[in-house]
Each structure stands twice: as structure tokens, then as C-alpha cells.
From TrEMBL, chain A:
Keywords: ATP-binding, Nucleotide-binding, Transport. It comes from the Bacteria. It comes from Robertmurraya kyonggiensis. GO terms for molecular function: ATP binding; ATP hydrolysis activity. SMART domains: AAA. PANTHER family: D,D-DIPEPTIDE TRANSPORT ATP-BINDING PROTEIN DDPF-RELATED, TRANSPORT ATP-BINDING PROTEIN. Belongs to the ABC transporter superfamily. Residues 18-268 form the ABC transporter domain. GO terms for biological process: peptide transport; transmembrane transport. This is Dipeptide ABC transporter ATP-binding protein.
UniProtKB/TrEMBL annotation, chain B:
Pfam families: ABC_tran (PF00005), oligo_HPY (PF08352). Its main location: membrane. It is a peripheral membrane protein. SUPFAM superfamilies: P-loop containing nucleoside triphosphate hydrolases. Belongs to the ABC transporter superfamily. NCBIfam families: oligo_HPY. This is ABC transporter ATP-binding protein.
């Protein structure tokens, strides 16, 4: 078999659970007396990615990079302005809410703030039962059994079933959110900053739990976070976002050991390290993240980039494949 | 106490009196000192008492909390018995403070310029014109290229990192001997965090300030502090140099924290999580406060709380494993 044929073979074998193509999400800015549209916030600006069944794709970026919006668009909690989303090869980006309903059971989300995402008036049983009531015709006793088994899976005592969210700590609430997300045996779970509100010792507990559940239920994760160390720990591949675009996407090892994009390099060097023997050279970026309503021309990162040159302001860099699975959007690498 | 200790906290206890006669011992017997020009970090998780310790030093603990016992010697003078009025000459002038959320710490209805000048006029007794000139100089120093215009701007017009720079300008405006920084970069993105920590370090060297850095981030401690205290349950459980803490941690809580931290420098299959959670300040276990979560717990740990003892020169640990 020729090399080309082998490549093609592999492409066919790749079992993508989710593919997003050229996703754009623009939010209108309204102003003036008549609330006319005066501009647009380009929260997600032409992002494509695919996620293999069973893998964890980490998405890192600073505030305003569009990582959370991307997650919400993929789940159709927000409608994309442009672009296509395929879940198990079915296009879901144009479906109506009614058509989407059977797909919703396969796709779930765990949010950052377990104080805001759980209804304070519902007890744990009701919280976990709600998706079962909406999506299945399970009997009351079957629902109770399911809730108890889920609570045990996430490490909570079954007798906490009748308690209310305020009776739990942050870490326990996040466990409840996870139990609720898993109630319908989903295939794909988006985790939007699931541990960033937690203390480190509790964060480690929840990360370990998520890894265990992934093995047990063969879950696919899209793991959105700003903490590079957490993303490194849990992901197989990592996408780095900047101002609504993907700057670099590659297997974890490449991102953390041989980062190519100057933004990835700076981001990694800025993380304070607990390894006091390895003093890394810090790249301190100048200035703030530009506003996504008025992004710089050409490459969005050029205003802060230590390696920017003339072409960067003229031409927007495309994501190009530099090595096996490693894509970078930077003019330093396309000749 | 040596002649040149800047801040010497002795036996500090700050309690909160809750409903139903419950007492939360948020800070329960804390001793440490800070020398001039030194960066000392106070690290711990939520509920460890680190922020209440720093607020106690500034005497900013409000009801139902109260400094119950202890001394806070600043330049040899005890701050605990001082009245609110007497404290105003210390706060802002001799001790500067920056907080986690600059949006709530800055007054939203006054311009940045106004807020810097207020501090200068109050403490330095200088004219308005001179305060204006000094304020612009300070803003330039902390990295505002268009300082004259920034003077006229309101806090909401600045980004998070810029607001924190403005806070630093206010905090250092009266050349304090000590800067208390309570989670100064927690609300900021990592690239902005690097800028702010770099600026703090530069200011510290320039003005020979001592910094008491309160943080939950062990990475920040490793890179910016010289000495460190780990707090748990209102008490210091380990106190040493940064080098000792990271290369030779002794307390099971410290080692647990370090193992539960995902790191960029090493790969681990599984994080070493500490079981259970931080107990609330009004229901600490009897005996050692970490005993319920400790992998090395012994019978005597549940009976009585160990003392903070020196196990090596300059390395104090509160644990029976080392007695």
C-alpha cells in the first residue's frame, strides 16, 4: 500500500463523534435611541475542530477568547451565526429544537459555578430526576434507583438524596452537577471550567472522578478551562484559543513540549511553576487582550506578539498542518 | 525580637461570634514575622484563615469578628490597642494594601486621579498641584503610558489588569514599609498575572518594601516569595523558606497539596487528592485540625492539637510525626 493510501485509510477509520466546521458566533452590539445594531462582538470567529470518540479535547484561553461560547454553540445552547456542527455524522446545526431533542440526551454539559447551575428549590433527587422525567418514561422507583446509583458513582452518600444544594460544599455540588449530566448516559460531555471554583485539594478529587467516569462510561469530553496545568492533566489533545480563533491545536505532548505559536509559548511561560529547581524564562506579554468587537486586522495576536512582522497586520493566518496532528495559525510557519 | 523586624505577629487570635453561641476560631494563635524588604507568603485554601490574618493586621475585621488575643508589633509598636482614628495614620501610609478584586476596592464614582490624590493629600499633607504631579508620576511608574488621561478616567473604563495597576499606584503612593497583597492576581488572566507580579516585584525592590503575599496559588509562592507559611484551620501548620517547602515539605497537608496540584513540569497518571474537605471554622475536629483528612493519622493526633515546633533550623512544623 502506498503512503497516500495508508493516510486515506486512516482518515476513514477516524471515528469522529463531533465535528464543527467554520463556526462563527457574532453577538450584536446595540446602541442609540432606536437600539440599532452598531457593531458586532466576534466571540467565535471561524473555528473548526473535530473530536474523536473517547478522547478529551482541552480548550484553553484567557477571558474573552470565546472558549465558553464555542462550547455553547456546539451544544446548540446558542445558535451559530455561521458554520456547521455534526454529531455522529448528523448535521445538528440547522435542526429545530424538536428535532434536536433525541440528540440532547447524548450531549451534556457541566458548568463552572455549581452555586448558579443547580436550582436551589430542588433537592438532589429532583435535580437528578429532571432529565429522566423529560427524556424517558422510567417509573418513579426506577428513577429513584438510578439517582442512588449515580450518587454512589460520583462519591456522594445515597441518603444525601433529599438534601438541597445549599447543604453541600462547592466540591460536592460539582459532584451533583456531574451526576445530573450523566443521568441519561450521554456519549459526549462538555465541561466548562468545572474545577476553577474549587480549592486545589478538592479540584484534584473532582478531576480524578471525571477521569474514572470517562473510563467507566466511555465518555468523550470537551474540557474548557483557563488553567493550563489542569488542561494538560486531563486532555489528549489541546486547542489554544485567542480572541475567538484557534491559534494552535495539537496532541497534548506537542502543545506543552514543543509549542509553536508565540501565544502558546507566552501563555505557558507565564504559568507560575512550583518546580523551584527549573527556572523557566518568562515571556511577559505587553498590554491587554484587544476587544473582540474590534479585533486587530490580520493576526489577532499581532498587537501583543513579540515576533510580529509586517505581514501579520495584513493577512489573517490560516491554521496549517505542520506535523502529525499539529496545526498552527501563524505566519512564522507558512512560507 | 531583633532590632530590624518590621512586623512581628505574636499569638494572634481572631474569633467570630456566630448565632447560637457558636465561635468560629478563624485565626487561632498565629505567630510570624516579616523583615524589611522581604516577601513572605501566607498560603492556604478557602477557610484557612489567611485573609482574616491579613485583615487583622490592618485591623479591618468587623463585627461579629474580634481580635481576641495577641500582639501585632509594627516597627515595635503594638497595633492591637490602637483606636480606629490612630489606625488611619498607619493604614495607607505605613502599610499599603491591595485586594483581590480591584473593581470593588476602587470607588466607582471617583476618577483614578482623584483616588490617588486623596491618599497623597491625606497622608503627606502636600498641595493639590503637587499631589497631581506626584499622581501622574506614580501612574507612569506602574505602567500607564498615557498617565495624564488615565487620571481623568473612572475604574470601569480600565481593564482588570489596569485596575490592579491603579491599586498598586495607590498602595505605594506614601512609600509604605509593608505592602499587604491579598490574592492580588486571582481575578486576572495568566498573562496579566505575570505582568502584575512582575510589577510588584519591581516596586518592592525600588522602594525596599516588605510584601506579605496572601495567596492560594503555590506556583505564585514558589516564584515570588522568600519565606512561606502554610495555614490550615486558622493555624500555621508549616513555616519555612520557599526552598525548604518545595524541596522538603514536612507536614502531611503541605505534601498533600503539592501532590494534588497538576503541574506543567511533570506528568502524573492520577492526582494525589486529599480526602474530605476543609472543616468549617466552628467545627474543627478536636486534636489536630487536619487529623480527619490525614493519611498518617495516629491516636494521639485525635487527642490533642500538636504545637508548632522547630524540626530543623528555620523549619517549623505542627505535626506529631516530627516530635
Amino acid at each position: 500500500m502506498s503512503l497516500l493510501e495508508k493516510e486515506l485509510e486512516k482518515k476513514v477509520e477516524q471515528d469522529y463523534i463531533l465535528e464543527a466546521k467554520n463556526i462563527k458566533k457574532y453577538f450584536p452590539i446595540k446602541g442609540g435611541v432606536f437600539k440599532r445594531e452598531v457593531g458586532q462582538v466576534k466571540a467565535v470567529d471561524d473555528v473548526s475542530l473535530s473530536i474523536l470518540r473517547g478522547e478529551t479535547l482541552g480548550v484553553v484561553g484567557e477571558s474573552g477568547s470565546g472558549k465558553s461560547t464555542l462550547g455553547r454553540v456546539i451544544l446548540r445552547l446558542l445558535d451559530p451565526t455561521e458554520g456547521q456542527i455534526f454529531f455522529e455524522n448528523e448535521e445538528i446545526s440547522k435542526m429545530s429544537n424538536r428535532q434536536l431533542r433525541p440528540y440532547r440526551r447524548d450531549m451534556q454539559i457541566v458548568f463552572q459555578d455549581p452555586f448558579a447551575s443547580l436550582n436551589p428549590k430542588m433537592n438532589v433527587q429532583e435535580l437528578i430526576e429532571e432529565p429522566l422525567l423529560v427524556q424517558t418514561d422510567m417509573s418513579k422507583s426506577a428513577r429513584k434507583e438510578k439517582a442512588i446509583s449515580l450518587l454512589e458513582k460520583v462519591g456522594l452518600r445515597p441518603d444525601s438524596r433529599l438534601k438541597y444544594p445549599h447543604e453541600f460544599s462547592g466540591g460536592q455540588r460539582q459532584r451533583i452537577s456531574i451526576a445530573r449530566a450523566l443521568a441519561l448516559n450521554p456519549k459526549f460531555v462538555i465541561c466548562d471550567e468545572p474545577v476553577s471554583a474549587l480549592d486545589v485539594s478538592i479540584q484534584a478529587q473532582v478531576l480524578n472522578l471525571m477521569a474514572d467516569l470517562q473510563d467507566e462510561f466511555n465518555l468523550t469530553y470537551l474540557f474548557i478551562a483557563h488553567d493550563l496545568s489542569v488542561v494538560k492533566h486531563i486532555s489528549d489533545r489541546v486547542a489554544v484559543m485567542y480572541l475567538g480563533r484557534i491559534a494552535e491545536i495539537a496532541p497534548k505532548k506537542n502543545i506543552y513540549e514543543t509549542p509553536l505559536h508565540p501565544y502558546t509559548e507566552a501563555l505557558l511561560s507565564a504559568v507560575p511553576s512550583t518546580d523551584i529547581t527549573a527556572k523557566r524564562e518568562k515571556i511577559i506579554l505587553k498590554g491587554d487582550l484587544p476587544s473582540p468587537s474590534n479585533p486587530p486586522s490580520g493576526c489577532a495576536f499581532r498587537t501583543r506578539c513579540p515576533k510580529a512582522h509586517e505581514r501579520c497586520s495584513l493577512e489573517r493566518p490560516e491554521l496549517i498542518n505542520v506535523s502529525e496532528g499539529h496545526f498552527v495559525a501563524c505566519h512564522l510557519y507558512d512560507n | 525580637m531583633t532590632q530590624n523586624t518590621l512586623l512581628d505577629v505574636k499569638g494572634l487570635k481572631t474569633y467570630f461570634y456566630l448565632e447560637g453561641k457558636k465561635v468560629a476560631k478563624a485565626v487561632d494563635g498565629v505567630d510570624f514575622s516579616v523583615n524589611p524588604g522581604e516577601t513572605v507568603a501566607l498560603v492556604g485554601e478557602s477557610g484557612s484563615g489567611k485573609s482574616i490574618t491579613s485583615l487583622s493586621i490592618m485591623k479591618l475585621v468587623g463585627k461579629p469578628g474580634k481580635i481576641e488575643d495577641g500582639q501585632i508589633l509594627f516597627n515595635g509598636k503594638d497595633l492591637v490597642p490602637l483606636s480606629d482614628k490612630q489606625m488611619t495614620t498607619v493604614r495607607g501610609r505605613e502599610i499599603g494594601m491591595i485586594f483581590q478584586e480591584p473593581m470593588t476596592a476602587l470607588n466607582p464614582v471617583f476618577t483614578i486621579g482623584n483616588q490617588i490624590k486623596e491618599t497623597l493629600i491625606r497622608h503627606k499633607k502636600i498641595s493639590k498641584a503637587e499631589a497631581e504631579r506626584k499622581a501622574i508620576e506614580l501612574l507612569k511608574l506602574v505602567g500607564f503610558p498615557r498617565a495624564e488621561e488615565t487620571m481623568k478616567e473612572y475604574p470601569h473604563q480600565l481593564s482588570g489588569g489596569m485596575r490592579q495597576r491603579a491599586m498598586i499606584a495607590i498602595a505605594i503612593s506614601c512609600d509604605p514599609k509593608l505592602l499587604i497583597a491579598d490574592e492580588p492576581t486571582t481575578a486576572l488572566d495568566v498573562t496579566i498575572q505575570a505582568q502584575i507580579l512582575d510589577l510588584m516585584d519591581e516596586m518592592k525592590k525600588k522602594f525596599n518594601m516588605a510584601v506579605l503575599l496572601i495567596t492560594h496559588d503555590l506556583g505564585v509562592v514558589a516564584e515570588y516569595a522568600e519565606k512561606v507559611m502554610v495555614m490550615y484551620g486558622g493555624q500555621i501548620v508549616e513555616q519555612t523558606t520557599v526552598e525548604n517547602l518545595f524541596l522538603n515539605p514536612k507536614h502531611p497537608y503541605t505534601s498533600g497539596l503539592l501532590e494534588s496540584l497538576p503541574s506543567l513540569d511533570k506528568d502524573v497518571e492520577r492526582l494525589g487528592a486529599i480526602k474530605g474537605m476543609v472543616p468549617a471554622a466552628h467545627e474543627f475536629p478536636s486534636g489536630c485540625r487536619f487529623s480527619d483528612r490525614c493519611p498518617h493519622v495516629m491516636d494521639k493526633c485525635r487527642a490533642a492539637n500538636p504545637e508548632l515546633v522547630t524540626v530543623e533550623p528555620g523549619h517549623n512544623v505542627r505535626c506529631y510525626l516530627y516530635e
